[in-house]
């Protein structure tokens, strides 16, 4: 999980998002610039880590990072510009929040919009290949989970404490019984369909 050789002399930021497939809550992105010599045996794609491991890694990443930033796009923004554009917008915000401008951007996934003419690469499953993307995935996931835990205190009927806004059976049952909230993404095709599902 090393940086590409051709960019090894540049300041490279890794960026990733969390919450793209959810019915509720924001989409959250992080951008991280790591020291070139940084390694950690646990750091990997956040989806392959346990919750405990992710929260263990977060302060480590934040301490060693040359710079890091976390940003969000709200459900209202997602409804307005669609989830793909909102995911990219959140990544742009995270990159813009770094305290130094990267010379190269490594993006998890296959879609991105140019940011301030900084060259970039899209890497499918990049969070399992590059440490800076893996670090960004850990920050994005944990900070978004924190938000969903707070929202669960307001609306415990959807099971967000466990499902973090993803369309689990408990979440769909909550939608069927209680309808949607201001924290739900109203334009997701899945949402009205969930209200009609019989269990």
Which tags fit this structure?
alpha/beta; five-stranded mixed sheet; disordered C terminus; Nucleotidyltransferase, domain 5
**What distance lies between the first and last C-alpha atoms, to the nearest angstrom?**
44 Å
What is the class in the CATH system?
A: Alpha Beta
The low-confidence runs, each spanning 5 or more residues with pLDDT under 50, are: 1-7, 194-199
CATH homologous superfamily? Ribonuclease H-like superfamily/Ribonuclease H
Number of strands: 5
H/E series:
EEHEHHEEHHHH
CATH architecture: 2-Layer Sandwich
Shape: globular
- Please list the strands of the largest sheet in the order they lie side by side: 3-2-1-4-5
CATH topology call: Nucleotidyltransferase, domain 5
- Estimate the mean pLDDT confidence: 89
Percent strand:
15-25%
The number of distinct structural domains comes to 1
